[in-house]
Specification:
The protein is α/β, with parallel strands linked by helices. Helices cover about 35% and strands about 20% of the residues. It has one domain: P-loop containing nucleotide triphosphate hydrolases (Rossmann fold, 3-Layer(aba) Sandwich).
């Protein structure tokens, strides 16, 4: 079966100082099957948002391949891109900046349907009302302005707009990080429910591992422009293979103080190296507690370990 999203050897580089390109994404490959949710995690600056923006066409890929339902995005002409964009929609981090403050939310949700010529008049109004109800809002909310809603309600509006065209792929870039803690669980449960009912593939970008654990089937860990580990969510959280993954999980606080004190501490010092001049060999070796001479000279190949894949010379 054709995957909803297939990325192969993707590179996204930006101009930098002294003619050095910033390698935001530097050779990433993965697939997302229809109905599957893949969590993409890593520290700030590792390339998560650059990758998600390339998938939806907000930034241009330098090289590589992005296929949405078998259709090539990289290098496609404007007409082909316009056709494909109906199959991929994005939910951004801050709903306040995702909505036009001068448009009612009904108009915002209706806009993609009007642009595509899918509904007009009474049919359009009924479709907008149905979308509002689908995300837990009331039909009479259609005439209100964005500032009349809370952050959680605005994010529901953004989700409704993203669902208007019934995309095959939904890209969520930190969709709850700008929301109050009290409403995050509501939005996450809404996304899980919609994904289950509509059978969409979802690329879920986040730095919050507890959120990823709740909503994702698979998890891919990114470091300095490259993936270092990918595995089913249950296995990755139970048995992380890569030292970087172990360090990320060890940094997540546990609400039980006894469990927190018993957690193993994984030393992780320093900052992510300059993406315009990444270190040779394994890119994580400058911060890795188990790095050896091999790590400083030879780039690790992807290996199958357990039920997942990992790029580490010493992963077991």
């Amino acid at each position: 079966m054709t995957p909803a999203l297939a990325i192969r050897d993707l590179h996204v580089h930006f101009p930098g100082r002294k003619r050095l390109a910033v390698r935001a994404v530097d050779g990433v490959s993965f697939e997302i099957a229809a109905g599957e949710t893949l969590g993409l995690v890593g520290e700030s600056g590792c390339g998560k948002s650059s990758l998600s923006n390339a998938v939806v066409g907000l930034v241009a890929a330098t090289s590589g391949s992005i296929e949405i339902q078998g259709q090539q995005v990289v290098g496609a002409n404007r007409a082909a891109l316009r056709h494909m964009r109906a199959n991929v929609q994005m939910v951004f981090q801050d709903p306040a900046t995702s909505l036009n403050p001068r448009m009612t939310i009904g108009a915002a949700i209706a806009e993609p349907l009007l642009v595509r010529g899918l509904a007009t008049g009474a049919a359009l109004r009924l479709r907008v009302e149905a979308l509002l109800e689908e995300v837990g809002l009331r039909p009479e909310h259609a005439g209100r302005m964005p500032h009349q809603f809370s952050g959680g309600q605005r994010q529901r509006v953004v989700i409704a707009r993203a669902l208007a065209l019934r995309p095959a792929l939904l890209v969520c870039d930190e969709p709850v990080s700008a929301l109050d803690v009290s409403v995050r669980a509501q939005i996450l449960n809404l996304l899980v429910d919609l994904q289950s009912r509509l059978k969409m593939a979802t690329l879920f970008v986040s730095h919050d591992l507890s959120v990823v654990r709740h909503v994702c089937d698979q998890v891919a860990v990114m470091y300095l422009g490259r993936l270092v580990e990918r595995a089913p969510a249950a296995e990755l959280f139970a048995t992380p293979r890569h030292p970087y993954t172990r360090a990320l999980l060890a940094s997540v606080p546990d609400p039980d103080p006894i469990v927190q004190r018993a957690k193993s501490r994984v030393p992780l010092s320093g900052e992510i190296p300059n993406p315009a001049n990444p270190p040779p060999g394994c890119r994580f070796h400058t911060r890795c507690p188990i790095a050896a001479d091999l790590c400083r000279t030879a780039e690790p190949a992807w290996r199958r370990v357990g039920g997942g894949d990992v790029a580490c010379h010493f992963a077991t």
